[in-house]
User: What shape does this take?
Amino acid sequence: MRVIVPGQLYDYTGGVSRLAAEGETLGAVLDDLDQHYPGLRFRVVDEQGRIRRHIRFYLNRSPATTLAHRVAPDDELLIVGALSGG
Amino acid sequence: MAILLIGTRKGGFVLETGAGRRRAQLAGPHFLGAAVNHMVLDPRDGITLLAAAKPGHLGHTVYRSTDLGEHWREASHPPAFAKAEGADPGSSVDHVFWLAPGHVDEPDVWYAGTSPPGLFRSEDSGDSWQEVAGFNAGFLPGIRQHVFDVPDGAILHSINVDPRDARRLYVGVSSGGIFESTDAGAHWRALNRGVAADFLPDPNAEVGHDPHRMALHPLAPDRLYQQNHCGVYRLDRPGDTWSRIGSALPADVGDIGFPLVLHPRDPDTLWVFPMDGSRNWPRTPPGGKPGVYRSRDGGASWQRQDGGMPRRNAWWTIKRQAFCADAGEPPGLWFGTTSGEVWGSEDAGDSWRRVCEHLPEIYAVEAA
Assistant: This one.
């Protein structure tokens, strides 16, 4: 599936915003991303498996609020750093 | 001249303070946009520098540098609580608040204190971190009902390792109190006797106190000092009852504040920076007139030191990690303000000058 990451994660992706990842759930996709970009997962999901407070996931532009959310190979995952400036 | 490691709400900086005609040199920002609660250089090797960072969006992490911040490497396993089981939602680390090198005989050991309160240990110079289970899982649940949030969330701070014995640890929890372990963190006990807690219904409560900063003297490790929400205290071990040495401060100034600085070689000399503790606790210099107070007799008497500081209308705050001494002779003193200024004294507090301004809100100042 396609994954679009926000600027906050460019330190992990080498400045690349559009990535490819595999998995049948949102959690599996994040695990796959973490294999390629070690440390990325912990920055967006905490140690209890909760999505961090100022991170949002959108699958095909619809909110995905749990890591158990099912995904398909043709889906697009958008990760957003949500409203924590100032 | 000193090298200062400065943590701010928007990043970390390294400041070479300059001297005489030599101007201060500022390097950074490191981790721009992230709150840097603490940057600490390991005195055991003089090389390893750890920084605790919490960006606005992402989870927290810890970085490590061995070239004074030219290059950084992220911890492979930042401090994290154990995964909870069953109906327990579990805790997650919001940010690392405090970093402390371990005992000199354990050169790769570091400790970290977090918010919410947790104690963590690294045995590989800060690359991977494990819970100190005796505190987080063994002791903390028993006192959790007495742990209240302070403005940025409850924190574990003031991690002190007895230089004579790596197994003796002291920590502070705000709020919660001072706690001691004599077996490397396996078991803990409260060490709050004699400390006021005028915000609690029981003035003699065993826990629930609010230490702002606690330190033992490295050359006299039985001498402990504490700047508390309710005054300045001293404890001489093996005693277990604190004495309120802040009572000797002027009544119109009071003994409320956040930081506390010890002379690196004289256990009887310390500095505090009183803040207004009246009514709704503004925590600004009393009357807008900042001044350090020094004691040379273990807190029996105090002298005001404000030469060069603003005479009026200074309304900033000095946070608990934002005042330090360097190892010079006499020791240099350095503090950072919530308004982003760094002030210093190279004559042990007799005169002060502003070294740097226009930084973000300063959280921590440590001498490298």
User: Anything to note?
Assistant: Chain A has one domain: 2-81. Residues 12 and 37 of chain A are 6 Å apart (CA to CA). Chain A touches chain B through 21 residues (CB under 8 Å).
